[in-house]
Amino acid sequence: MATQSESQIKHHPDHWSFTSNYHHHVERTVHPVIVELIKWATQTSPPDSSSAVLDDGCGLGTVTAEVKKSFPDLSVLAIDSAAGMLEAVNRKTEKHDWKNVTTRLLDGGNLHSVSSNTITHAFACTYIDLAHNATACIKELHRVIAPGGILGMNTWADPIHPSIATPWTKACQQVYPEFKAPLVTSPKWSTADQIKHNLEKAGFKDVQTKQVITHWRWASPEEMTEWFFNGGNPVCGRWHEALVEEVGGKLEGMRERFHEELVKEYREVGGQLLNEEVVNLTIARK
User: Fold this and answer.
1) Ranges for the Methyltransferase domain (predicted)?
2) Does 54 map to a domain?
3) How many structural domains does the chain have?
């Protein structure tokens, strides 16, 4: 049974495989904060030649790529439950000729093929507050991390995600004034106190969290509109479902209204549309 720390978004690994073709839009938003997280974790616990890195819920392999830039000889295990995401990581591995990178199709809540106490640096980026089984994922991370090893993770600070929810809500309220934006990630991972409680409950210690700002970046309102409606991201699907299920609305005609609100809500900088989003960066020790 799901606990309060877990997301209620309806998703399946196949959904994430489908959206892998559009996921670079999300990757460029979280990339700067993942770079900062890796720097923080590796400065706190400097890796050596015997270190083993886990990229848990690897997505398109942002963590793997950044680890390889700074520590090209380190062993990295990249796992995801979506085959489409792993295919993207494998393509990058071949393109960049990365050494010591292994990919495995695994759910974060059951790392059965990863031995206990073997990982020195584990990263769980942009997925714990989306997971159906977040509690199990954190327990498994604690199991596989070696004593003294470090966990680095990021979660969204606002479970409504105003950079996207605000223009969507305003668009919907033009026709359905009673519409309210739903939570799309678990609020139990949105503050430092909540994160500390969840990680310490799983056995972690020395938990530190800081909030940083990143930006959604879009080449145009058309690009964001296409991603939002046709990209297959389960988070976007939750916004669509809320309109239909909670107020009996219809998606027909909403594309144009959403496009109009994006122009109002986002600012143009250097030919791009930008909007801020706050992210939690966390490190913890086993």
Assistant:
1) 53-149
2) yes
3) 1
